[in-house]
Specification:
By secondary structure, the chain is of the alpha/beta class. Helices cover about 35% and strands about 15% of the residues. The protein is built from ten helices and eight strands. The protein has helices at about 10-20, 80-100, 130-135, 150-160, 175-180, 190-200, 220-235, 250-255, 265-280, 300-315; strands at about 35-40, 45-55, 110, 140-145, 165-170, 205-210, 240-245, 285. An eight-stranded mixed beta sheet has the order 1-2-3-4-5-6-7-8. The longest helix is centred in the N-terminal third of the chain and has 20 residues, at about 80-100. Bound molecules: iron/sulfur cluster (SF4) and zinc ion (ZN). The site of zinc ion has 7 residues, from loops.
C-alpha cells in the first residue's frame, strides 16, 4: 500500500480529522435544525408518512472520518427540557403544514440527533419521559445510536413509549481495515452484539451502510457494500439504508486531493441497492439526498433518480435501458 496522508496510528486520527474541519453552522438549542415528512415503506409493505425531526444537541463524542453531522450540533449539552421543546415545536409546525395541504398525519417519527440518542450528554435521560409523551401518538419511534451506547438506557426509553422503538445504527462497512480506519472505534462483532441485544429486547433495528467509503475503488466498494448488506441482515436489521459517501467535512476533501477517496458512481449505489432488494431479507433504502452529486450524465439522471424512488417505495428493481448519451 502506498503511503497515506491519513495517520496510520489510531490515536492521531481524531486530531487530523478535527484540524481539517470547516466552521460549524449556527444552531439554536431551542429549535430542531430541520424537520420534514416523507413517505417510507413499512415492514408490512405500506407507504407510511414518516416525520423526521433533526434535533439540535451536543456533538457526538466520536470523530468518524466521513461524518459531517457535527456541523449542526452544539459544543455543550443543551439544557434539560430543550429536546422535548424542539420536538413539540416541530410537531406543531408539521401539523400546521399538514392541515394546509390536506396530508395525513405521520405515523412514524425519526428523532435523529446527529449522534446517539442514548448519549446522556446529547439527550438528557431526565427528558425521556417528556420525549415519550410528545411522541405518544406515533406507532414507531426511530432513534439513532452508536452500537457502544445500546444498552439499559434503550430499554428504559422503550418502556416509556406507546409505539415500537427502532434503533438505527451505523454498520458503515464490514471491511475490517477500512472500518478501523473510519475512526468509529467499533468492530463488526460489537455491531452484531448490539443487534442481538436489540433483538432480545424486541427493539427493531435498521443499519446504515456506506457506499464507497474512503480507501476503496468502485468494484471493491460494490463488493463490500454487498457484504455489508448481508451482514446487516444477518444481525437482524429490518431495514438497510445505503448512504453514498460524499465530501463536505474537510477530511474527505483532503483524502480526495490525495487520491484516497472519490465519491461513488451512481451505478455503484444502484447495483448495491438492486442486490439488497433482490435478497428479499428486509427493506433496502437508497439515500437519495443530493443524489445529483453522484451522476455524470444529465440525460439519464432523472430516470435513474425516479427508479431509485420506486425501489425505495416498492422494493422492486426497475430495469433501465442503456443511456444513449453516457452509455451507462
Ligand atoms: S458515531 Fe455517527 S454521528 Fe458520531 S461521529 Fe460517527 S458517524 Fe458521526
Ligand atoms: Zn446517461
Amino acid at each position: 500500500m502506498s503511503k497515506s496522508v491519513y495517520p496510520a496510528i489510531g490515536t492521531d486520527r481524531s486530531d487530523w480529522i478535527l484540524a481539517r474541519r470547516p466552521a460549524r453552522n449556527a444552531v439554536d438549542p431551542g429549535r430542531p435544525y430541520a424537520f420534514l415528512v416523507e413517505k417510507e415503506r413499512s415492514d408490512t409493505g405500506e407507504l407510511v408518512p414518516t416525520a423526521t425531526v433533526f434535533l439540535t444537541n451536543k456533538e457526538c463524542p466520536w470523530r468518524c472520518l466521513m461524518c459531517d453531522l457535527w456541523k449542526n450540533t452544539t459544543t455543550a449539552s443543551v439544557p434539560a427540557g430543550a429536546i422535548p421543546e424542539q420536538i413539540e415545536f416541530a410537531l406543531r409546525e408539521l401539523a400546521c403544514q399538514a392541515a394546509d395541504s390536506g396530508q395525513t398525519a405521520p405515523q412514524q417519527i425519526k428523532l435523529y440527533n446527529s449522534g446517539s440518542f442514548f448519549d446522556p450528554k446529547a439527550i438528557p435521560e431526565a427528558d425521556y419521559r417528556a420525549i415519550a409523551e410528545r411522541v405518544s401518538g406515533f406507532k414507531r419511534v426511530i432513534v439513532e445510536s452508536h452500537p457502544a451506547l445500546v444498552g439499559e438506557r434503550a430499554l428504559r426509553f422503550r418502556d416509556l413509549l406507546n409505539g415500537q422503538l427502532e434503533v438505527a445504527m451505523g454498520l458503515e462497512t464490514v471491511h475490517p481495515e477500512v472500518l478501523e480506519r473510519l475512526n468509529k472505534r467499533v468492530t463488526v462483532e460489537q455491531f452484531a452484539s448490539a443487534g442481538a441485544f436489540l433483538r432480545t429486547h424486541e427493539i427493531a433495528m435498521r443499519a446504515f451502510v456506506l457506499v464507497k467509503p474512503p480507501f476503496m475503488d468502485e468494484p471493491m466498494a460494490l463488493e463490500w457494500g454487498k457484504r455489508s448488506i448481508d451482514f446487516a441482515f444477518e444481525c437482524g436489521a429490518a431495514a438497510v439504508v445505503l448512504i453514498p459517501v460524499r465530501p463536505g467535512n474537510g477530511a474527505m476533501e483532503a483524502l480526495e486531493r490525495a487520491g484516497e477517496f472519490k465519491a461513488p458512481k451512481l451505478r455503484t449505489l444502484e447495483e448495491a441497492a438492486h442486490y439488497g432488494v433482490e435478497l428479499k431479507r428486509g427493506r433496502v433504502f437508497a439515500d437519495l439526498w443530493d443524489l445529483q452529486l453522484f451522476s455524470s450524465c444529465a440525460e439519464c439522471f432523472p430516470e435513474r433518480l425516479g427508479n431509485l424512488h420506486l425501489l425505495n417505495d416498492r422494493q422492486t428493481v426497475v430495469p433501465r435501458p442503456t443511456c444513449s448519451v453516457c452509455g451507462d
